[in-house]
Structure formats: C-alpha cells, structure tokens
Amino acid sequence: MEIVTGMKKITFGVFLLLLLSSFKLEASNYTFGVRIVGKGKPMILIPGLKGSADTYNDVVAHYKDHYTCYVITLAGFAGQPASAELNHPLKGQRDEIIRYIIEKRLHKPVLVGFSFGGTLAIWIASTRPDLIGALIELDGVPFDAGIEKNHVNMDSIRRDARFRNEKIIDAQADYWQHVDSVRHTKKFREQGFLDMKELVTDTTRINQILDWDDLSDYKASRLMVNEMNSLDLRDSVSKISSPILVLGSWKGWVNFKTKETVAARYQKQYSPADKVTIVFSENGKHFLMYDDFNWMIGEMDKFLKSI
C-alpha cells in the first residue's frame, strides 16, 4: 500500500513508522502516562498512590460519550517509568499536568483526583485556579496528617521529610534491589492483601491494586509519598475559585469509629474553599469507585449537571 504526501510516495509501513515516531516524540514531553478516551468536554482523572489509569475504567465508561477523559498514570506508578527528578518529583508532576492542560488547550477541564491523586489535584487547582473548571475529590484531602491528628508540628514534619529524602536519594542500588526482592515475596503480598482489606472489599480488586504496586518503582513512590507528607494545602484551597465536590469514606479511616468524627475533620480542612460540597458514603471503604460505585457516580452526575 502506498500513501501520497505532497509530491512524495511512501509505503504504508514507513508511514506507520512516522506516525509512531511522532507519537513517541509528543509523549516524551511528559513523564506521566495519559490515556485519552471519549468525546466532549475535557475531564482529567488522577489515580491514587501507585495506581494505574485502569482505576477509572468504570468511570470512563460512564462519561466517555459526553467527556473526553484524559486518564493519568503518574511517573513511577503501575509500570509508568519514573521521572529523573529526585528532589521534588511530586511538584514535577503537578507542573507537567499544568503544562499539559495549557499545551493541549484543554478549556476548563473537570479535574478528578482519588486519595493521593486527590491531594495532587488540589495542588494543581490551587496553583492555577484559572485553568480548572471543577474539582472532584474522591476521598482526597488538603492535608492527610491533619485528618489523623488534631495537632501537627509542620516544622518537625518538613525537617523529617528533608532527612528522609536525603536517605532515599543516597541509598545505593543494592539497597533497592534488596527492597524489591522483599516486596515480591509471598509473605509481603499476603500482608499487603490484609492491609488492603481495610480499604476495599472486593478481593479481585485488591489483587489488581497489589499488581499495580508490584509494577511501581519503589524509590520513586517513596520520594513522592515523602513529598506529599510534608504538603499542607489547607490554606491553599481558598485559592480555588471553581466548585468542589468532595466524596468521602469514613470506613477507610481505621482510627475513627464514626462518620461524624471524620466528616467534622473534612469540613474543617475544606472550610476555606468558597464553593464546596462534601458528601459521605454510608457503605464504601476508601476505594469508592469499587466499593460504592453507583452512589459515587450518582453524586458526580448531580454535581456536574449543577455547574
């Protein structure tokens, strides 16, 4: 097969190679992965810690006829190659996603973030509030440590984070090889399964999440978790001008026994925001898209129709 381009003929094989090359060149501009599905208004979806874009498969299936879904896999997570940035890799992801919105000319996208990805979504929206059309938080908060504890010393937290960051960066290759060997043992997997039962009910989903963990770059994830732990965005939510929907789970917080206790802390963290709606699942654990999908998608639909 031949294809005419201008004054030249090229074979289909060469044409396909050129297409693939141009795609790779574009993709190399960003260290995160992105899957684009659907048509319509833009919606960006960020999964949680070590999560794959597949986290949102059911959500994308629901919205693909009305939204173009840009589904992210963060650098170093679930098989996506890690970023070369070591000092501020999470900030790097924030800035790259902002750049992606600008360069792809995505007009006022809906920004959806789950858990770890929810905090990152808050950081994006509060850094460039002019770019975001609406923010949907799936059990994500401005300051994770502030949910678990009433009082935290940020100076101490940030000092400890700097110390841990140096240790992670300075660790030698044989250390990471040892860590990887431990992470892929049967015992480690069994403990991970028990831990995940606190966050999601379906055992098939638990194994899927653990598979993503296996595929993740442990050094990269440690660096980003460390950076996230020192990030306090409670005051920053006041900068977000777009409407915010927060869908929370109280059963996912193992240290709390009542929905009212968790809800009060969520309300306090989001109180500086101008337009925020907070609703809690009665039944779902942390992974709301797996534990209480119909309720979650119903709340999202209602919110999106109201803006």
What does this protein structure show overall?
With 307 residues, the protein is α/β, with parallel strands linked by helices. It is 48% helix and 16% strand. The longest helix is centred in the middle third of the chain and has 17 residues. It has a single domain, classed as Alpha/Beta hydrolase fold, catalytic domain (Rossmann fold), CATH 3.40.50. The strands form two sheets. Strands 3-5-4-6-7-8-9 form a seven-stranded mixed sheet, with helices on both faces. α3 crosses α4, α6 packs antiparallel against α10 and α8 packs across α9.
Compact summary:
This protein is an alpha/beta fold and 307 residues long. 48% of the residues lie in helices and 16% in strands.
Name given to the CATH homologous superfamily: Alpha/Beta hydrolase fold, catalytic domain
CATH class: Alpha Beta
Largest sheet: 7 strands, mixed
- Give the total of beta strands: 9
**Helix count, DSSP H or I runs of 4 or more residues:** 13
Content of β-strand = 15-25%
Sequence stretches where pLDDT stays below 50 over 5 or more residues = 1-27
Total of domains: 1
State the shape: globular
Average pLDDT rating = 89
Judging by the overall fold, what is the CATH architecture?
3-Layer(aba) Sandwich
| Helicity level | 40-55%
Secondary structural class: alpha/beta
User: Would you tell me which CATH topology applies?
Assistant: Rossmann fold
For the biggest β-sheet, the strand order reads: 3-5-4-6-7-8-9
CA radius of gyration is: 20 Å
Task: Provide the succession of SSEs.
Answer: EEHEEHEHEHEHHHHHHEHEHH
Terminal-residue CA separation:
49 Å
